[in-house]
Amino acid sequence: MLEQLLAGAIEDAETRQQSVSLASVEAAALSAPAPLDALAFLAPSERVKVIAEIKRSSPSKGALADIVDPQALAREYEAGGASAVSVLTEGRRFGGSLDDLRAVRQAIDIPVLRKDFIGLEYQVFEARAAGADLVLLIVAALDQKTLTRLHALITELGMTALVETHSADELSRAVDLGSRVIGVNARNLTTFELDPDLFGRLAGSIPEGTIRIAESAVKTAADVAHYRRSGADVVLIGEALVTHGSPRETLTEFLSVNP
Ligand SMILES: O=C(O)c1ccccc1NCC(=O)[C@H](O)[C@H](O)COP(=O)(O)O
């Protein structure tokens, strides 16, 4: 599944490149307003932080929410106390787009993450040109050479890479990169099974000074508390926020769980 998602995202980027060249998107990235310092927004604190995700659908669940106004949702997230907003820009299975990211960037004053299946420099320049402050890199999707190259480009452009892992081996590859922000995703990207204890098993091997993010599988405030007790600085939440009636209230409830 991960291979298919990455191949589809790369194919779509190559199609866009036929109308907007690499040189043009690079120029747009370099002239975009400076990115926000995501490290400062996500820095460990006495309270757990949340990256709130804009997610219309997913391969594991199908349609989740009919999000017609991503700007309004992003504002709700900001008002509810989110430290950053994740925008799924993959179109085929998640129903997202770079237009969503551009719109969200204009609506809020907290960092925006481009969450997609990134394998090309072109996609990193696109992210910056659209206003992203953070870009997701999935260790399982990339060989170490490509990961290193994309990580360096994200950093050179002033953005922050969120490096996502699912195992001790992947975590050690993320550490080798010198990642400042490491995520552990509870969702197995092949079977879609959720393992809410994976973060706790790996967190101790994430070096001090790194921002530790627990991704996926939060349904209730108790799940946020579980991740916090396991050492998460930040929790990334999608489905629970887009499917509950009031994302702002849900976020406020989730953020009140600090042990
Ligand atoms: O969500 C999926 O079904 C999915 C399937 C394959 C690759 C990635 C997938 N999701 C991306 C994410 O990592 C989540 O959207 C994110 O961590 C939030 O998860 P959740 O709170 O469980 O919606």
Automatic annotation (TrEMBL):
Molecular-function GO terms, alphabetical: indole-3-glycerol-phosphate synthase activity; phosphoribosylanthranilate isomerase activity
Keyword DNA-binding: no
UniProt signal peptide: none
Keyword annotations of the record: Amino-acid biosynthesis, Aromatic amino acid biosynthesis, Decarboxylase, Lyase, Tryptophan biosynthesis
Catalysed reaction equations from the record: 1-(2-carboxyphenylamino)-1-deoxy-D-ribulose 5-phosphate + H(+) = (1S,2R)-1-C-(indol-3-yl)glycerol 3-phosphate + CO2 + H2O
Top-level EC class: lyase
One Gene Ontology biological process: L-tryptophan biosynthetic process
Pfam family, one: IGPS
SUPFAM superfamilies membership: Ribulose-phoshate binding barrel
EC number(s) recorded for this UniProt protein: 4.1.1.48
Span of domain Indole-3-glycerol phosphate synthase: 2-251
Annotated InterPro entries: Aldolase_TIM, Indole-3-glycerol_P_synth, Indole-3-glycerol_P_synth_dom, Indole-3-GlycerolPSynthase_CS, RibuloseP-bd_barrel
Pathway(s) the chain acts in: Amino-acid biosynthesis; L-tryptophan biosynthesis; L-tryptophan from chorismate: step 4/5
Family: Belongs to the TrpC family.
NCBIfam families assigned to the protein according to its UniProt record, in alphabetical order: PRK00278.1-1
Name under which the protein is recorded: indole-3-glycerol-phosphate synthase
Species in which this protein is naturally found: Agreia pratensis
